[in-house]
Amino acid sequence: MRRKKLIAIILSACLVLSLVVWMGTGMLRTFLDGGDEQVPTLIESPQDNQTLRNTVLYYKDDKGFLVPVMRKIPWPDGKGIAKAAMRALVDNPANRQDMETVGLIPVLPANTEIIGMSINEGLCKVDFTAEFMNYGNKQDEVAITKSVIYTLTEFPTIDTVQIMIEGKKTNTLTYGLDISNPLTREDINYSGTNKTKGKVIVYYQGTVNGMENYFVPVTMDIELGNQENVTALAALQSLIDGPSEDSGLFSTVPSSIQVRNVDLIDGVAYVNFSEEIEEIQDDMIAQDIVKSIALTLKEYYKNNMAIERISIMAEGREIDFGEAAKEEPAAIPTFANEY
Questions:
Q1: Which residue, 220, 224, 283, 221, is CA-closest to 252?
Q2: DSSP per residue, 289-335
Q3: pTM, two decimal places
Q4: What domains are defined for the chain?
Q5: Higher confidence at residue 38 or residue 188?
């Protein structure tokens, strides 16, 4: 009897030991095989019955400018929305057809696929197939890279982006753009010489077939003079001065108007112009002026203080300014362009 009990104890111990060794080997293999992998962070959780998400994507217009467009992107199984955003940027017949009515072009080269994506502590690693490199010049290289960075950093959990090709980190792209380190937003649609110390993002306008208007963020140089930092006044002056003549863009704010000062009080930006602002009677033009000013100031104040509304003034007096006056002060738009 004792002999049988001893044998049973030994067999049980062997079984437990085998199970421990098997589990330990599996855990060790998992650690060795996947120790460098990042655990993906959920970008957002969809609300009840939510199948679409308002997502800002950066397409290209016929002049080569990147244009932010809010689109309702299908939310696949409550996850993978960032990958879905990247797929919407691939140049294929379906995506081209989606955007042809607004005259914009998908940026990522045809047949580009997303091999994988991980998000950890603000860093998004996105791995593309080799087709990502199928472009013909430096301008396209910059536009493609910035479109990826700006689109992904629209998500609140992403601050920087590491672009990988076929599972490997690449130091430079074909025309020399450095992607060896994670990249962040910088100098979208830059129009300058890099010889000045100040830069500002201004929202000019472009047209589709000379009819449909859209808003384009352009990074402009600012001469600082005795100022240490770019002022809101300088940002709006750049908007009034307009883009370069050969850009194909324009500013709706007449160059004859002068901006006196800008005061931000309790979330409201009071923008004081010369009296010529009152000569504008067309409601559509007034709406475009208010929106371009609001988007420019929203960009200017984004790292400093909150801006919620904008009030147009003439020589220190608040004025009724077109349709915008129906809700005065006018609300700052959430999106530059919606489709």
A1: 283
A2: HHHHHHHHHHHHHTTTS---EEEEEETTEE---GGGGGGSSEEPPS-
A3: 0.84
A4: 52-169 (3.30.300), 190-331 (no CATH)
A5: 188
